[in-house]
Design a protein that fits this description.
The structure is a homodimer. Chain A is α/β, with parallel strands linked by helices. Chain A folds into 3 domains: about 45 residues, lambda repressor-like DNA-binding domains (434 Repressor (Amino-terminal Domain), Orthogonal Bundle), CATH 1.10.260.40; about 130 residues, Response regulator (Rossmann fold); about 130 residues, Rossmann fold (3-Layer(aba) Sandwich). Chain A is about 45% helix and about 15% strand. Chain A has 12 helices and 12 strands. In chain A, helix 5 links the parallel strand 1 and strand 2. The first copy, chain A, is elongated. Chains A and B meet through helix 4, helix 5, strand 2, helix 6 and helix 11 of A and helix 4, helix 5, strand 2, helix 6 and helix 11 of B. Chain A binds a DNA duplex (30 and 30 nucleotides) through helix 2 and helix 4.
Chain lengths: ~325, ~325
DNA sequence: CCGGTTTACTAAATCGATTTATCTATTTGG
DNA sequence: CCAAATAGATAAATCGATTTAGTAAACCGG
């Protein structure tokens, strides 16, 4: 467990620490050829590995950025995270991914922890319940980008999709195909994305002159979802099409239908907001509203990178369109 | 961007830095009630946030552990990573996930980078091509655990599955059902897992007295896989069952069959080594060999945690059984 | 009331780098 | 030939905490 430090290298090479540091930072401006050589040899001989902690402490940069996802079991989050990592890799910045589990307390804890670890910036899928904290970060000029969900009343960089619009189009498409009984299944309406999707649904239904049947809007947590679906399907008017507000809802729905012996596409048409992996393997046609996760991740990373490098511009909100397939 | 340091708090509270430090570390042994109060107030007033870097530099612990996965697009890796994160969360340790992309060079770079950042330990899905590096870490007593793949000739903590045995059983099962033409599709045989799975396949085939047809063993990278499958299916003897050596192979296979208009289960029976998400949604029965990813992750985390806390015991290899469903 | 404990707190060294100001030796130019 | 410029290297301060050794005051028994 022999720690080799810069001082050891300096001693071995017969020069000062400062010179070794210059060498490591490739400031060769005024450096003798022989000195370089000696240092190189000393490093080799001792197997020296620099300590980034010490360097970061002095430089006030850690080359780490933090990603706080609202829910890591959501496939969209992992796609975005991967794109972010890819982007930062070229600049030798590493990403730390933390999972807030849709819990504002956890989110707060992670934000504080990552800032204490001096990460250079944060990309957050906000739970939306820590506005004070978000605000204080922004005020302090700390680099932050928000993804997926809007933050109310705060002027920040955000990268989101046109939830309302694409839901509207998908529902409109269903209506054109003749569906009148379209159900909307969603987790609790606590975040902007879900509310916007519902808004798009309502708009399409109203415009088509269909009366909005409140029983067709199912709002429940994943564990209670099957139960609610049960009562929907045992009621008078049964839906002929269903909108699943995200991939987790879709899985619950899939399990439910399987138990009932129903099939997608045949007994019921389905739209899912979200891509799912392996979707190309499913045999029945399902409509997916796909968010451009990679592009969104890259954009978020880019925005953060600019802030870290103090290339200041005014915060903007980037809205990406989704594709319906 | 006002950085508040411990010195500021000390000044504000009218005590010394040392006392503030004691307070933060909850060493109240000899501390006056009024002093505590004053410090508490000062922290509140200034909005002080401790700097972990400085602390880590002194303590030589960062409360970070690194996970280097061979391939992050492999679903198994993410499941294991999540289990590891969960385990460490209770001890306030964070995990950094890095993707080596099956590239030994990248793997080396990441190992060096993470060690320079002074992470407290490493969990590695080894590419198997950096044995010297692995060895030097182990010799230095640095905490490491290897997952998924064996490391040759090195006495280390490892957590793996019984690749050969479970493949053997799955193939045997197929043979019992009457299949004689069973193909084995795999990515290049560069790592232990793939070789062991092939070994299990060969063993089952031989024991059943079936002549081993080398054309039935397809070894190719994902992009070339379809081409190879093409030639397999245009040859004389067509397989009636296929073993896909992991999830990525399965996707390639699925796409190929879809293009050809064939269906799993009906035209061809399939076993996949690996779980895939949403597998419960697939309508046709496919056999999966499922590795207990969560248990494996937890075990690996536990082994690393023990090493970090110097609870030394001799390195062991833990082999987990897979389930066939 | 004196020496020894205990209590409460602090000064200063330390971790391992970076960085600035400084110093010496050598060139250069007028 | 001497002052100024330049090349090459270094001493020392610094980053923001932890930790050790130490000090001062209060306490305490005989």
């Amino acid at each position: 467990m022999e720690r080799v430090t810069m001082a050891d290298v300096a001693r071995e090479a017969g020069v000062s620490k400062s010179t070794v540091s210059q060498y490591l930072n490739k400031r060769y401006e005024y450096m003798g050829e022989k000195t370089k050589q000696k240092i190189e040899e000393a490093i080799e001989a001792l197997g020296y590995q620099p300590n980034f902690l010490a360097r970061s402490l002095k430089q006030k940069r850690t080359s780490l950025i933090g990603i706080i996802v609202a829910n890591i079991t959501h496939y969209f989050s992992t796609e975005v995270s991967r794109a972010i990592e890819d982007f930062f890799h070229q600049y030798d910045l590493q990403a730390i991914v933390c999972n807030a589990d849709d819990d504002p307390e956890k989110e707060k804890k992670y934000i504080e922890m990552l800032r204490a670890k001096q990460v250079d910036g944060l990309i957050i899928f906000p739970t939306g319940k820590n506005n004070d904290l978000y605000e204080s970060m922004v005020k302090q000029g700390y680099p932050v980008v928000f993804v997926d969900r809007k933050v109310e009343n705060l002027d920040v960089y955000s990268v989101i999709t046109d939830n309302s619009e694409s839901t509207y189009q998908a529902i409109q498409h269903f209506i054109k195909k003749g569906h009148r009984n379209i159900a909307f299944v969603v987790q609790p309406l606590t975040v902007s994305t879900r509310m916007e999707r519902l808004h798009g649904y309502k708009k399409a239904v109203k415009e088509a002159g269909i009366e909005l049947n409140p029983n067709f809007i199912i709002e429940a947590n994943i564990p209670e979802m099957k139960e609610k679906l049960e009562s929907l399907f045992s009621s008078e008017e049964k839906p002929t099409a269903i909108f699943a507000a995200n991939d987790r809802v879709f899985i619950a729905l899939g399990e439910f239908l399987k138990e009932k012996g129903m099939k997608f596409g045949e007994d019921l048409e389905i739209v899912v907001f979200d891509n799912i992996p392996f979707s190309q393997l499913l045999e029945t046609p399902i409509t997916f509203i796909i968010q451009p996760a990679s592009e969104m991740g890259r954009k978020a990373a880019e925005l953060l990178y600019k802030q870290i490098n103090k290339e200041n511009s005014d915060p903007e909100v980037f809205v990406f369109p989704s594709k319906i397939i």
